[in-house]
Design brief:
eight-stranded mixed sheet, globular
Length: 226
């Protein structure tokens, strides 16, 4: 595992759990608005897997879970083995993913190694490649991950990060059709973290976010904003 960050406590990132966050390096996408550019490029200082596991052993009985995020965790070749070690310590695991590696997601779900999944839906299928900063992508991979989660037995959420440069009502109509039947989706307004990959982006005002929520609510059970 290439780990380049450990947040030792969060009560917000894993619903219902007191958790820590493990940040992995590298990503299969290059979303220009990414707020973790240092992680995506792998420019951070590495933390050993042993150091993380040692911390988790010390926090047994205090923490409930571990959030594994990035970057994109599913590009890590030993992700499954790492999660097994975490589960053997008695922790629940939440995975944050871009959904581009459905074979990894499916394996982890089938093995019962995940307790919660948060997956980004970046945009409509037609605008997916440009939104993730690539010339072209295999959108079928994203579709497969969406369906895996819609049909899984554990809690999950989809997330859409919005900005005026990439989204409009037209895109949200398409996202709503794509996510039809999903249990939960969050709309996140773009916020400049100070570690953006490239470019300048403009968030929507609250009124427009409310309009987008109404569009998604036509097909998704629970629509919320962050």
């Amino acid at each position: 595992m290439i780990i380049q960050g450990l947040q030792k406590l969060t009560v917000l990132d894993f619903p219902g759990q007191v958790a820590c966050i493990v940040f992995t390096a590298g990503c299969s996408f290059r979303c220009p608005f990414c707020h973790n550019a240092t992680l995506v490029k792998g420019d951070g200082e590495s933390i050993s897997e042993d150091e993380v596991l040692s911390y988790l052993k010390k926090r047994q009985g205090i923490l409930d879970g571990v959030v594994i995020t990035g970057g994109e965790p599913t590009i890590q070749k030993d992700l499954k083995q790492f999660i097994l070690k975490i589960k053997n310590l008695g922790y629940k695991v939440k995975l944050d993913t871009n959904g581009y590696h459905p074979e990894v997601l499916e394996d982890l779900l089938n093995e019962g190694l995940l307790d919660y999944v948060a997956m980004d839906i970046k945009n409509s299928k037609e605008r997916y490649a440009v939104t993730v900063g690539l010339q072209n992508i295999d959108v079928l991979r994203i579709e497969r991950s969406v369906e895996l989660l819609k049909n899984c037995s554990i809690p999950y959420e989809f997330r859409v990060t919005t900005m005026q440069e990439f989204h409009s009502e037209k895109e949200f109509e398409a996202i709503a059709e794509w996510a039809k039947g999903a249990k939960k989706i969050f709309i996140q307004s773009f916020k400049d973290s100070g570690d953006i990959l490239c470019g300048t982006f403009t968030p929507f005002d609250d009124a427009k976010i409310a309009d987008f929520k109404q569009i998604l609510a036509k097909t998704v059970t629970d629509v919320e904003s962050r």
